[in-house]
Amino acid sequence: MSALVGGCASSGDSATGTPSEVQEVQTQLLGDMPLPAASKIIGSDSLIIGRGDSWVGRVVLSGVQTPTDIYAFFQSEYPRAGWTTISAVKSKTSILVFTKGDRTATVELNEGSLAGPKTMITITSSPKNANVIAPSRK
Length: 138
Hints:
single chain, 138 residues, alpha+beta, 7-stranded antiparallel sheet, 7 strands, 26% helix, globular
């Protein structure tokens, strides 16, 4: 796995190769989380702990489609992959929240820059029932 993440981190982008090879790397890293076509992982901005269907952390991607098209992709493809939509807000910064089993995935979509990708995608994955305790005041 470190070779996979290292390959992404060293170049700052997804691994290169044929579309099927890139898909294989993404599946090994992110498991059952479909990604929009031609999106690329930005390794320098991502933090992936674990692999496959049990990874936690944040993956940042550049997308070639518009934010509207990518929003529609997540709305249709994640439920097909077994994810349940918990919340979806479409705005300048769109947020979608999905759950599957004991996991939660939050997807944030932002417009890219004129010279860069059309859409910046941030997917955060974590356990659904993590014990989070608010600090007590003394």
